[in-house]
Each structure stands twice: as C-alpha cells, then as structure tokens.
C-alpha cells in the first residue's frame, strides 16, 4: 500500500488517548513510507495524524471542499492540498487516491465515510482494505451492530469481513496489507 485514506474527527474527542494513539498511527504510516490522504483539516484527530506523518518525514495530501475552508481550517503545512467543490467530490477523490482506508474515532461525517466505503466494497466498486482503528474500544459498538445486521439477515456473513479492526496501529496496517488484493496499484 502506497497511500491510505484516513477518516477522522475534526475534534480530538473526550479522551487524550484518542490523540495519543492517532499520533502513533501517524508515525507507523511514515515509517512504512505510506502517504496519508485525508480531509485536509488542521484540527482534531485529522490534524494530529497529519502533523505526525509530516514530523516523521512522510507525505500528506488533503482534500477539502472550498466551502469548508472557513469551518474546518485547512492545514497549510501539508505536502499537497486538493480543493474540490463538494463533499461528494472529496470522498470520490480520496477514494481514487487511496489504496486502503482507516476510520479513526469521529462523528457522523466519519461514520458516513466509513459506511459508504464499506458499501462500495460490498457492491464491488473497489477491493481496497477497510480498517477500524479501535482506540479505547470506540468501534466495538459498530462491530456489534454489523454482527447484529448479519444475524438479522441484512448483511451477508462474508461481508462482515470487509472491515478489519485493531487497537494496535502496526497490527492494523499488517492486517490491511494481508487483505490487499493482488493487482491493485
């Protein structure tokens, strides 16, 4: 994997552990030479992962809709900023650029990006690995919801495996690399 798209909150959350673990993930990406693709903001977990990748010599590409420049404060120190018109264009561009996806803790926007990406994998739009960085058990309820959806007959059992999850950044990246399909980038 050459580039990973990270979905993350523009807030740091209520526990300092979220930012601490996010920084460790940023270091892991940089040490493996994996470029970060993300929403382009300076704040919250988005900014924390970008800062850490940059601090360790990595490359960072942000993708941000013009109308969010006032609301999300774009990160001006990143390697490259791609300006788009809409959130839909942002997601499409990030997907185009990425070889895999990681969801960090975040709010509705992060959850929406995660589920859209998993839906795209489910219907074959992409075959890229999707991962949950399960800091402090943040994504445990989501994983239980997916299990419940399988049991209720709304999600096929084999689609439950479209996402990998770990609270350890190195293990998470290893699992993603193991799921990477031959022939992708």
UniProtKB/TrEMBL annotation:
<comment type="similarity">
    <text>Belongs to the LOG family.</text>
</comment>
<dbReference type="InterPro" id="IPR005269">
    <property type="entry name" value="LOG"/>
</dbReference>
<keyword id="KW-0378">Hydrolase</keyword>
<dbReference type="Pfam" id="PF03641">
    <property type="entry name" value="Lysine_decarbox"/>
</dbReference>
<dbReference type="InterPro" id="IPR031100">
    <property type="entry name" value="LOG_fam"/>
</dbReference>
<protein>
    <recommendedName>
        <fullName>Cytokinin riboside 5'-monophosphate phosphoribohydrolase</fullName>
        <ecNumber>3.2.2.n1</ecNumber>
    </recommendedName>
</protein>
<keyword id="KW-0203">Cytokinin biosynthesis</keyword>
């Amino acid at each position: 994997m050459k580039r990973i798209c990270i979905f993350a909150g523009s807030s740091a959350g209520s526990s300092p552990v979220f930012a601490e673990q996010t920084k460790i993930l940023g270091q892991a990406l940089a040490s493996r030479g994996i470029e970060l693709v993300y929403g382009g903001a300076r704040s919250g977990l988005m900014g924390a992962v970008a800062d850490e990748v940059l601090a360790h010599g990595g490359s960072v590409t942000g993708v941000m809709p013009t109308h969010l420049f006032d609301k999300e404060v774009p990160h001006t120190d990143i390697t490259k900023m791609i300006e788009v018109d809409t959130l839909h264009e942002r997601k499409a561009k990030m997907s185009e650029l990425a070889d895999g996806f990681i969801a960090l803790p975040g709010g509705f926007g992060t959850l929406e990006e995660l589920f859209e990406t998993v839906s795209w994998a489910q219907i074959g739009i992409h075959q890229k690995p999707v991962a949950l960085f399960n800091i402090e058990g943040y994504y445990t309820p989501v994983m239980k919801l997916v299990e419940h959806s399988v049991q209720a007959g709304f999600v096929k059992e084999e689609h439950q495996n479209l996402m990998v999850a770990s609270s350890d950044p190195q293990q998470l990246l290893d699992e993603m690399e193991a799921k990477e399909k031959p022939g992708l980038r």
